[in-house]
What we know:
- The chain is of the alpha+beta class and 83 residues long.
- The protein has one domain (2-78): Ribosomal Protein S8, Chain: A, domain 1.
- It is 45% helix and 18% strand.
- It has three helices and three strands.
- A three-stranded antiparallel beta sheet has the order 1-3-2, covered by helices on one side.
- A hairpin with a 6-residue loop joins strand 2 and strand 3 (73-78).
- The protein is globular and about 35 Å long.
Amino acid sequence: MERALANIFDVETTSGPFSFAIEEAERAVAQVMEGRDSVELSPQNAYIRLLQHQLAQRYKLTSQSTGREPRRRVRIFRTGDNG
């Protein structure tokens, strides 16, 4: 999955913050798809949050950014469940 996203967005894959953020979002997607109400991710910059939102959308889940910079973060939940 990481490699596919890296190819789509023309980003180098490393074991740094980008990889951590995408892996965290992938785990959150899996948890929500398995029945968890929602998962809040760790704070990220705007570009990484965009990628996290796109990942949620790919799995037909809903996401929203919450908080203020520099602690702004993404929350992923099932479509129709924003509470």
